[in-house]
């Protein structure tokens, strides 16, 4: 049986920081499932189907990476996939408190699934999906921060709407 990790998130939008964490995960695990969550709390800019497409295209050359969506409890999903770990990225100390709470709750729900925290490359420590959306909504360049397909989609989305996305505030990062 291969060692499988789940890398969950809303990925709205998918960034090069996410790719960096997937590459790091594949150094530890034989397989990583990038698990796209629907995001009930947030108002996603892109549909689940669009996000699945962006991610699939972006990781197509990464052996051991696959992309799926899920709607159930994360630990149930991880158990169904025979995953031994849930991978989360920590960019700064501010991420830690939220991620620790989630990891401890997941451990309470299933002690057999480990939480693994990875730090991104230094060049991506500031990067978040929320920040990318904000910059793109005002016409700023996100080149080099997101895959090319995401960059094009962001330009199209904001060209059509001419409206900036609602920001989630900065307290919790998801995405």
Task: Give a short summary of the structure.
This protein has a domain at 4-124: HUPs (Rossmann fold), CATH 3.40.50.620.
Q: How would you describe the overall organization of this protein?
A:
This protein is an alpha/beta fold and 175 residues long. The chain has a domain at 4-124: HUPs (Rossmann fold, 3-Layer(aba) Sandwich), CATH 3.40.50. Helix content is 39%, strand content 17%. It is built from 6 helices and 5 strands, in the order βαβαβαβαβαα. It has helices at residues 16-25, 48-59, 74-80, 93-109, 129-137, 148-161, and strands at 4-9, 31-36, 65-69, 83-89, 114-118. It has a 5-stranded parallel sheet with strand order 3-2-1-4-5, with helices on both faces. The two termini are 30 Å apart. Mean pLDDT is 91; it is low at 170-175.
Counting helices, strands and paired strands, the structural category is alpha/beta
Which runs of at least 5 residues are low in confidence (pLDDT < 50)? 170-175
CATH homologous superfamily (4th level) name of the domain at 4-124: HUPs
Distance between the termini: 30 Å
Biggest sheet architecture: 5 strands, parallel
Report the average pLDDT across residues: 91
What is the helix content?
25-40%
**Any idea what the shape is?**
globular
Q: Note the beta-strand portion.
A: 15-25%
Radius of gyration from the CA trace? 16 Å
The total strand number stands at 5
Q: What is the spatial order of strands in the main beta sheet?
A: 3-2-1-4-5
User: How large is the count of helical segments?
Assistant: 6
Task: Supply the CATH architecture of the domain at 4-124.
Answer: 3-Layer(aba) Sandwich
Topology-level CATH name of the domain at 4-124: Rossmann fold
Oligomer: single chain
What order do the helices and strands follow? Answer: EHEHEHEHEHH
CATH class of the domain at 4-124: Alpha Beta
């Amino acid at each position: 049986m291969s060692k499988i990790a789940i890398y969950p998130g809303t990925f709205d939008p998918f960034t090069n920081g996410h790719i960096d964490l997937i590459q790091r995960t594949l150094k530890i695990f034989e397989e990583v499932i990038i698990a796209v969550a629907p995001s009930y709390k947030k108002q996603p800019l892109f549909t689940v189907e669009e996000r699945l497409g962006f991610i699939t295209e972006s990781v197509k050359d990464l052996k051991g990476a696959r992309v799926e969506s899920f709607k159930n409890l994360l630990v149930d999903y991880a158990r169904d996939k025979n995953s031994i770990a849930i991978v989360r990225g920590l960019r700064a100390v501010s991420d830690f408190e939220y991620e620790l709470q989630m990891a401890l709750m997941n451990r309470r729900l299933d002690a057999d699934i480990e939480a693994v925290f990875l730090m991104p490359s230094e060049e991506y420590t500031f990067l978040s999906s929320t920040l990318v959306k904000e910059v793109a909504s005002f016409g700023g360049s996100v080149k080099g921060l997101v895959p090319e397909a995401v960059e094009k989609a962001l330009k199209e989305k904001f060209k059509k709407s001419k409206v900036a996305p609602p920001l989630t505030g900065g307290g919790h990062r998801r995405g």
